[in-house]
Design goal:
By secondary structure, the chain is of the alpha+beta class. The protein has four helices and two strands; from the N terminus they run H-H-H-E-E-H.
């Protein structure tokens, strides 16, 4: 995978982690709309984050007998969110003029 693609994927994952931290009940479609990335990219990133143990998927049943999901940020996920946030934050500061 090219370095540009890796950076793009890390940015998607970071943005998804931020959204999940604020709203664990967010759906993949809502993430896709809010972050302006494809639904497939959201699904791919979520599966990667689950595989790494950075988020957990929790099933719950609502009153309509449909299954819903909540994405829970794990302690490891919170730590790694801070680690991957550093390059994106420094990039933004580099482009700002004071």
């Amino acid at each position: 995978m090219s370095s540009r693609r890796i950076i793009h994927q890390e940015n998607n994952e970071f943005q998804i982690l931020r959204q999940i931290e604020v709203n664990p009940d967010v759906t993949q479609r809502q993430l896709s709309d809010k972050l302006n990335i494809s639904l497939g990219s959201v699904n791919y990133a979520l599966n990667a984050l689950i595989a790494r143990g950075w988020i957990k998927l929790k099933n719950f049943q609502n009153s309509d007998d449909k299954f819903g999901y909540a994405y829970l940020l794990t302690p490891e996920g919170a730590t790694n969110k801070a680690v991957i946030a550093k390059p994106f934050g420094s990039e933004k500061f580099k482009n700002m003029s004071f």
